[in-house]
Amino acid sequence: MSGPSPGESGGPDDPGGFGESGGSGGSSGSGGSGESGGSSGSGESGGFDGSVESNETVAFEGGEVGGPTVVAPGIVRIGVGTGSPEGQNSAYVLPDRGVVVDPGPPSDDAWERLVTGIEAAGLAVDEVVLVLVTHWHADHAGLAPRLAEAADATLAMHEADAPLVADYAAERERRIDRDARRLRAWGVPDDRVAALREGDRPSPMPDSYPVRELVDGECVLGIRVLHTPGHTLGGATFVVEDDDEEDGNGSPRGTERPTLLVGDHVLPTYTPNVGGGDTRLFGFDDEADPGAVDPDNPSPLWFYLDALDRLVEWDGRRRRCGEHHAGGDDLGGVADDGDTDPPTPLVLPGHGTDLDLAERAAVIDRHHRERAERVLDAVRAVQATGTDGESGGEGASGDGVTPWAVARELFGEMDGIHAKMGVGEAAAHLVDLRCRGLVGVVGEEPVRYSAVGR
């Protein structure tokens, strides 16, 4: 059962780098259906004339963000960078708070666009006080140290991802070694692993830079931190809420409705990669059994879907930052306003336009349910044919099937980074299927799976 190649409809979800650039998707809609699910917001489409009015809300079409655009009161989107399947990265400026979220990739062109956008939003670079990053991938975090240094601002991100920026040079070497060991354990041939290592070029980021570590539920400048792992181990969503502070005009700063800055956890068109973009999600130390099931770390896919469910359940009735709550969940306590319907949150992704969270979550959930069925079918198909996923290779059906063989059955030939994304996604689904008792591990070095009951 040969599936589509990466980059075609239904290919493996792709963060766009060996772990460095981390762009976001490669399969669109559900199983490559190409459903967008994005919404264009309100207002009239229009170009950017060099300034942003505080009450201007401009909708735009397609995945390219373009010039600075007010997407909600107090929030300006800037399109930075190129090269992701999703289009440009979306950096966000909150001028009344002096906050920038996900500055973008570490290139001079992106820097110029970022600075121009910050100034057009009415904020001087040296007035930025806080740089927030949703996850460690360089297309989001790459410019964060440069901006924080230029502004003498605090750089902050979730504690699980913070070391990969704070100690970039050392953590990069650890990541490359960890990923290589994981790829070999999944059955990826040595020459492919070597090629991926060779192609992993360092980003122009400082070897180290101070990063404030944030924890789930923490609030900073009226912005709540929600830990949403799955795309990376320390992925975070930032909830922008109204607060009692005033802007420079004496009006309450903040948004008319809660706004979720979700990074790459939910995207308008593509399904974020789970498994290949951060191999730390598989748990254990680097030498542990890659097919094992850790009860405290069921699977990367479980983490991702659990966080997605929690975002959908977030209904806008959470208490503001700083308000006491008792017995609340990890998203904060619920403020009961009686029969008043809370405003629907605005959801802003790390690429492209605002989106309908419930609609996109349903598409993504369906995609992964269908992908799980295809992975299980692939295990059975490869075992039936006796091939191990390499051209001319033979593997007795009793030996089981490697994640690499499953990825090749699903996606066909995978070039460059698609090999890492494809096998990572296959591995994530195989671990999840093992947690559910549908496959078992029948071999190691590399790990091999067999369908239960076969």
From TrEMBL:
SMART domains: Lactamase_B. InterPro entries: Metallo-B-lactamas, RibonucZ/Hydroxyglut_hydro, Sec-metab_biosynth-thioest. Residues 8-49 have a biased composition (Gly residues). Coiled coil: none annotated. Residues 1-53 are annotated as: Disordered. Residues 88-325 form the Metallo-beta-lactamase domain. It holds the Pfam family Lactamase_B. PANTHER family: ENDORIBONUCLEASE LACTB2 (PTHR23131), METALLO-BETA-LACTAMASE SUPERFAMILY POTEIN (PTHR23131:SF4). This is MBL fold metallo-hydrolase.
